[in-house]
Write a structure and sequence with these properties.
Two copies of one chain form a homodimer. With 214 residues, chain A is of the alpha/beta class. Chain A has nine helices and ten strands. In chain A, β8, α8 and β9 form a beta-alpha-beta unit. In chain A, α1 packs antiparallel against α4 and α7 packs across α8. The termini of chain A are far apart. Chains A and B meet through α1, α5, β9 and α9 of A and α1, α5, β9 and α9 of B. Chain A binds a DNA duplex (22 and 22 nucleotides) through α3.
Chain lengths: 214, 214
Amino acid sequence: MKAEKIPEATIIRLSVYSRNLQYMEEMGITKVSSQEIADATDGSSAQVRKDLAYFGEFGTRGVGYEVKHLNRHLKKILGLTKPRSVVIVGAGRLGKALMLYNGFGNRGFRVMGIFDKDMSKVGEQVGDLTISPMYKLDQFIKTHNIQMGVVTVPAAAAQETVDIMTRAGVKAILNFAPKNLIVADDVKLRNVDLAVNLEVLSFYMGLEEREGEK
Amino acid sequence: MKAEKIPEATIIRLSVYSRNLQYMEEMGITKVSSQEIADATDGSSAQVRKDLAYFGEFGTRGVGYEVKHLNRHLKKILGLTKPRSVVIVGAGRLGKALMLYNGFGNRGFRVMGIFDKDMSKVGEQVGDLTISPMYKLDQFIKTHNIQMGVVTVPAAAAQETVDIMTRAGVKAILNFAPKNLIVADDVKLRNVDLAVNLEVLSFYMGLEEREGEK
DNA sequence: ACTTGTGAAGATGTTCACAGCA
DNA sequence: TGCTGTGAACATCTTCACAAGT
């Protein structure tokens, strides 16, 4: 392992490797090669080995990797060994859908609260949580030591939302609002822009269409 | 403009530029510089100019860009000038949330149908559409000439879903199932993995925590 | 014999810095 | 003067190919 800077693309792939190793583990597979991981995740075996090499040596030459052992290390690297507390702000359809999304829970993320400005939504039950009013957000984050926030409010309200979150102590934010947000250097921010994804697809479709016209 | 290969990162940024130009247009701003676009989208002015240079010359030296003119070109590049027809398969919470998501509609994407295998969901009203049974999907895609599909079914059902879609003629797929899918070369596929995004944030939080321990 | 781990080569993407033009 | 457009320098990421280890 080296103290180099690690590409973000590597971290994304490690997360995908881990998910696939999880499946393998559940299916009772005990041993895997870099080539098999590559096949399952649509990558190359050299890439898999390079990605892992940033963090240490996890395999046995001539043999491969022990599934359980490798997955345990990957989860550790990704910080998934202790549960992470999350709040969702914005109890619209997307916020509620994420609140109830199983994919978070079974990877160690605990959605502890869901908040909305709209008082007509406050009190509504979503799964086993109740929608809380925004003015309680700051105190809730502090009391429950919340580390991560998910933003599903409209673009116009996104900046004030992250300001409240970060002032209260949230250290990482996943933003679904189509807006470029400003946060302090020590806060990690990731944007998921659903429309951008469709537009990228649309671009490549357009390329094909133009090819077809020739 | 050159016939070079264009980085996907460039396409993603063009989509973000376009969204910001849209805001500017709505606010009545007529003129913008590459620096101003960079500030609004958290990038560099050189990057903005390089991205645009793949497709032509849209500005005036010494002056900048005409907002409306540039946005019109970007939308053309992204294939957003004619509306794109979309189906959503998987009428769970995420599927419904996406169905009702405004961000698609106001960028030219038309959700024409929503489908689910679960017959107890079929017939249910979502916005102004009704959930249809899976066996109607193939015919619907052909009849309405659907170009894009959004997959929000569970991981185990994702591959068979895209097989039906692509056999019926869908040319681009946005997949939310945490599963690596196989599609023909002429079909464009993008994966949005919500848990991966949280895991990447978790990784960077872990780095900071380890820093703090020193 | 087989598969990892890795330096070196190659490919790709970003930034610099300035010529070109209004 | 001011800002775009762009070749060249730089930085980053991926692939290659083989030595090392079992």
